[in-house]
Amino acid sequence: MSFEGKIKAGDFKKVIDSVSRLVDEIKLQITEDGVQTKASDPANVAMVILSINKEGFDSFSLDEEMEIGLDLDKLEDILGVASSSDFVELSTEDGSTLDVEVGGFEYNLSLLDPSTIQEQPEIPNLDLPSKIIMEGKTLKKAVKAAEKVSDYLILVTQGKKLTIKAEGDSDSVKLDLEEEDLIEIESEKDSRSLFSLDYLSDMSKSLSSADRVEMELGSDYPIKLKFPIVNEEGKVEYMLAPRIESE
Amino acid sequence: MSFEGKIKAGDFKKVIDSVSRLVDEIKLQITEDGVQTKASDPANVAMVILSINKEGFDSFSLDEEMEIGLDLDKLEDILGVASSSDFVELSTEDGSTLDVEVGGFEYNLSLLDPSTIQEQPEIPNLDLPSKIIMEGKTLKKAVKAAEKVSDYLILVTQGKKLTIKAEGDSDSVKLDLEEEDLIEIESEKDSRSLFSLDYLSDMSKSLSSADRVEMELGSDYPIKLKFPIVNEEGKVEYMLAPRIESE
Amino acid sequence: MSFEGKIKAGDFKKVIDSVSRLVDEIKLQITEDGVQTKASDPANVAMVILSINKEGFDSFSLDEEMEIGLDLDKLEDILGVASSSDFVELSTEDGSTLDVEVGGFEYNLSLLDPSTIQEQPEIPNLDLPSKIIMEGKTLKKAVKAAEKVSDYLILVTQGKKLTIKAEGDSDSVKLDLEEEDLIEIESEKDSRSLFSLDYLSDMSKSLSSADRVEMELGSDYPIKLKFPIVNEEGKVEYMLAPRIESE
Fold it and tell me: Which controlled-vocabulary keywords does the entry list (chains A, B, C) (predicted)?
């Protein structure tokens, strides 16, 4: 049982970053297709599903499927020293330690026992009525504006219009995005859901550099936010449970 | 009773910033000439007088004079998201809420009841003997240097020379500015006054980008610092009470 | 007894910085050759030896050798306001106060009584078997990588190879530097010593911009790190006691 993979440091940083915003430790599945993980935050409010195709790696070799346990903080800390254009070489013989070679340095990290890490969540199968594609930076800006007045965000679709708003005790803010402000909007039914800005803020930092973020929305239903990483050879999907509006 | 005004975000940020260094809440008078406010800090040591001509606005319409109560922190917070070249559109129908449109976002802020805000101070009518015009960055640099050794600043004019100095328990610093280092200096009588660096530090941050700051000085008298904003269509005037030198 | 010296602010900042990483107060000897100091940190684990030739100064005049007591924090604080290309003019009449003129400002700082400052350390006369010359930034990068996994650094020479490594409880990191990765390596005998990363981290910040750092190394012996400053007209030498490896 052994794995060797080589990937650009800049890409790998973004991968780790997108997951570490929700959890500290993950089980990573390494298969002949690439690497995958699923995780939910400790409060079970948000989930992340990550996959990177084998083609996203500069080189990738595996003799047997395996699951390894990763401490994401440790990995982020190490990658912090690398420049984005460096290559990271990852290898493990037996799943107990991970060799990370980057910028001339050879790190040897002890891996976590996957059985000690929280079970991977079941992903609910949701068919949401409103599908919007927008730039990541638009969503990030809206989240930042909303944080000035409230701690939750309201997302509303009406026909071909997406309204992002927040209502605090005394102040409110609203952003109307018409079809021409978005890359795409399809809505079978008007939607309206509320979400915690704490989570959206973390997620939006990670997706802010994505050219295309797919958002799926319903009424009092979870939101899905999907965006490509590693030159479209990987993808991150966030799901976030709604906050139910008190009357 | 309604007001609508449009102004460059960069200009409006500087306006708010120059006042918020002394107070958190202000009464703003909106008249057919433009907007004005006066405020003193809670300790009554410093005052700020602000005015922006109607011409400083990209558009300005008002049907009746009004006074509104502004929470400056809240406004600064919101403007922080805007880029300097954005335009801010301000409007209020009845003085109870303020609509702020900037960068596509529409904020609705509740205004303060002006009667709950500290009375505007009487501005003393002072005719000070020394009048100096200098670059804002010169004053800011001097304040920064003085902070290294003391918590008050001494300003002295002798003929056509301005000396800025500070004396700590063990160390001191001095900057001599001759006529050629200043834009202008006129002094009917030599002056010498001491001022708290706490206040001057805040003020100097605000005036540091001004090409021309007018300083008026006497002996154990308040200092006046006046500088233009909003492309010369507005002005800020600070007054700061002296600290009396202990013998 | 009087001294006057003029030196580039950027150079003088680096000089002060290299010493202030270990101690807050120093005795500085001013002789006809230039200025010198030696100091050890409060725990007596590290030493710094500093000298600047008279030629490192833009101008230098002295009528009698003297020793002055400097508060380095205070000096760093003042130099922080200067731009690197400014000149600093230092002068003292009697060793009780120091005049520092920089950027138009004239500071007058009280000097410390040298007799109140810790005695200067004896410098042990060490002839260490491994001598390596490398770029400062290589060492800094290695120290930063090591800090991710441990609180001490292991330096090993084997023939013409220098290995820098660190071993934490669960993780480790290693950097092999062959002859071609270094400027020079001469080793009479293989060496291996451990050093505290706390100290190396401070030192490496100071030497990171040096093109050539001379390292001398033995087995369980102190390390010497020597690098030029002030356009080769001065030098800094650090010595750091080893940590003895527990079996």
Answer: DNA replication, DNA-binding
Alpha-carbon distance of C150 to B240, in angstroms, equals 54
Give the list of residues 6+ apart from residue B30 with CB closer than 8 angstroms, or none.
Answer: B3, B5, B62, B65, B66, B67, B68
Phi/psi at C227 (nearest 5 deg)? -150, 150
Residue A128: Cβ within 10 Å count: 19
Q: Judged by CB atoms within 8 Å, which residues 53-72 of A form the interface with B? A: none
The answer on pLDDT for C245 being more than 80 is no
Phi, psi at A246, each rounded to 5°: -85, 140
- Mutate: best of C108, C111, C112, C116, partner B, most B CBs <10 A: C108
Distance CA B226, CA B236 (A): 6
Residue B245: what pLDDT? 72
Neighbours of C97 (CB within 10 A): 17
The span from the CA of C184 to the CA of C132, in Å, is 6
> For chain B, how many helices (H) and strands (E)?
4, 18
Q: Which domains does chain B have, with CATH numbers?
A: 3-116 (3.70.10.10), 130-221 (3.70.10.10)
Query: Residues of A with CB below 8 A from B109's CB?
Result: 170-171
Q: Span C187-203, mean pLDDT?
A: 97
The angle subtended at Cα B230 by Cα B228 and Cα B233, nearest 5°, is 70
User: In 3D, which of A119, A98, A132 has the Cα closest to residue A215?
Assistant: A132
For residue C146, pLDDT beyond 90: yes
Amino acid in the structure at residue C196? S
Q: Report pLDDT digits (tens) over A93-133.
A: 988 999 999 999 999 999 999 999 988 999 989 999 999 99
Question: What distances in angstroms separate CA B166 from CA A207, B40, B136, C77, C109, one per listed residue?
Answer: 51, 25, 19, 15, 12
Interface of C with B in 71-90 (CB under 8 A): 74, 77-78, 81
**b/e map of B166-198 (b: 16 or more CB within 10 Å)?**
bbbeebbbbbebeeeebeebebeeebbbbbbbe
* Partners of residue B213 on adjacent β-strands: B134
CB–CB contact B105 A175 (8 Å) = yes
Gap between the Cα atoms of A204 and A181, Å rounded: 18
Report residue A44 as tokens: 């079970």
Tell me if A66 sits within 8 A of A1, measured CB to CB: yes
Return d(Cα B116, Cα A15) in angstroms, integer.
Answer: 52
Q: Cβ contact (<8 Å) for B108 and A173?
A: yes
Strands C161-167, C213-217: pairing is unpaired
Going by pLDDT thresholds of 50, 70 and 90, the confidence category of residue A208 is very high
B231: Cα separation from own chain's centroid: 15
Q: What are chain C's partners, defined as 3 or more CB pairs within 8 angstroms? A: A, B
The ipTM estimated for the assembled molecules is 0.86
If you average pLDDT over every residue of chain B, what do you get? 95
Residue A229 near residue A18, CB atoms below 8 Å: yes
SS3 B178: coil
How is residue B159 annotated by DSSP?
A: T
- Nearest CB to A171 within list B74, B81, B104: B74
- CB-based contact C109 B171, cutoff 8 Å: yes
HSE, CB side, 13 Å, CA atoms: give it for residue B85.
0
CA distance A97 to chain C (A): 9
Residue C66 tokens read as: 């003297």
Query: In a 3-state reduction of DSSP, which class is residue C162?
Result: strand
CA-to-CA distance for B187 and B156, rounded, in angstroms?
Answer: 11
Residues paired with residue B25 on neighbouring β-strands, in sequence order? B71
